[in-house]
Amino acid sequence: MKTTNFNVGLLGHVDCGKTTLARALSSISSTAAFDKNPQSVERGITLDLGFSAFLWEKPQKEQQQQQLQITFVDCPGHASLIRTIIGGAQIIDLMLLVVDAQKGIQTQTAECLLIGELLDKQLLVVINKLDALPAEQRESQLEKLRARLRKTLASTKFGKEVPIYTVSALVGTNIEQLRLALGAACEASQRQLSPAAGAAPLLIYVDHCFAIKGQGTVCTGTVLQGTVAINDTVELPMLGERRKVKSIQRFRQPVDEASAGDRIGLCVTQFNAKLMERGIIAQPDYLKPVHAVCVQLQPIRYFKHPIRSRSKLHISVGHDTVMANLHLFRDEATQLSSFDLSREYEHVEELLPQQAMDSGADCIFALLQFESPVLSTLGSTLIASKLDMDVHSSSCRLAFWGRILWQTHCINYKRELLPQLRIFKHKHKESNVQRVVNPNEIIVQNLFKKEANRDIYVGKRVQLSTGETGHIERTFGQSSKVCILFRDGLRQETLEQLKSERAKEVRVLLNCKKYIFNKQAGLFQ
């Protein structure tokens, strides 16, 4: 009998009953299920991803039985563990958003909803802890909560028609109905899964890693794409090492191979498990460490802080969350949403929340330079966050997201590649005329600071506020003066004004551009 795996993520605010719900729904548990981590037991909250499952069987038209294994990914709800939540959300096919019947939507409930929206996950909502509501008020309180949930969902890509189920995981109320609904939803979604996932190069997100004496190192994780079989050679790209697959288990049952969607334990020839507590296993030569990427910035509407160039953000890609330096830029000429390293882009100093709301972020790109490399592919989704904000704050910490349009494996990219990235700043200088030499020549003072290198501006075009255009012919004297030449001469009315009391009204304007990653290129117009 064929068994197909489908991953369902349980996400929600801390203490909404996700782990209790996973236990109530499951009939199979893994070594990382139901808060077995000693620290989880001590603190009474989920600290890491937990995995459990149940089997859903449905007759097929051909009178055969197809077995569907529904694997639950129990994500922590505590605010400080948002990076683990994002990592867990990337490996799921369907998201179960768990809401406390008494508390309703809380801060992490909203953040989890956003993560599901960004990662384009199918959604079901579960209101848990029915038993905590007084019996005589239960239905009226549930109706109010459903209305609030539908109003919130209506403002998201999920829409207000998302199925909402009510359960008590603790006493078992409506658990069987939820199990049936999950089976039907997963079975329907199976028909929409792309067959390309199985044909793509192998990619496994590893969430736990440990050594077994005399056998090897076991990596537990989820196959995102491709297939893996016993005796295959796989790569640990971040460690730069390759290992042979000795055995494979799926929820403690030995199997010869696994494919996209499967939750597996992969035993490979031994390596130091401490070097890869969480990471990626891939087909050899498929992935290499990435040091910088460009994305088209998609602002998150609930983030109420400016997004600034030269700031640092937490960037989550797959299971990786690393710090990155940010530079914003836009294509001012064409407003294209595609990225081309050879095009010219304008530097953006900051994006304000109101600009993001008013579509001011259209065609704004973000260059992200990672402080430590990540493993990613073109088209991968990344999420930028400010995780150093107060975890007890009600403010959204997710700043923006985007899909990777460009990336580099070059460790010396700052010297070899960034100078090719033609991001410029506008340089604007303004002064007035000190004196007229003749109808074709004027002397200007204080267009530059005294310590500035005036020579780099020789030949640059300038314009008077009266309309005439000339160029800087040469520097003049030892101070900040320059001589400006007008080949067609100044108009008579301009000459007269410069000789009158209104001379200071004539402004000398110089506009240039300067590349921020290639200082050797100088100024250009």
Automatic annotation (TrEMBL):
Pfam families assigned to the protein according to its UniProt record, in alphabetical order: eEFSec_4th, euk_SelB_III, GTP_EFTU, GTP_EFTU_D2
Q: Which InterPro entries match?
A: eEFSec_C, eEFSec_III, EF-Tu_GTPase, EFTu-like_2, P-loop_NTPase, Small_GTP-bd, T_Tr_GTP-bd_dom, Transl_B-barrel_sf
Q: Which residues form the signal peptide?
A: none
Q: Which domain of life is it from?
A: Eukaryota
Q: Which GO terms describe its molecular function?
A: GTP binding; GTPase activating protein binding; GTPase activity; translation elongation factor activity
Please state every residue range assigned to the domain named Tr-type G: 3-191
Gene Ontology BP terms: selenocysteine incorporation
- Please give the PANTHER family that the UniProt record associates with this protein: ELONGATION FACTOR TU-RELATED (PTHR43721), SELENOCYSTEINE-SPECIFIC ELONGATION FACTOR (PTHR43721:SF11)
Name the record gives this protein: GH21181
Organism of derivation: Drosophila grimshawi
- Top-down, what is the taxonomic lineage of the species of origin? Eukaryota, Metazoa, Ecdysozoa, Arthropoda, Hexapoda
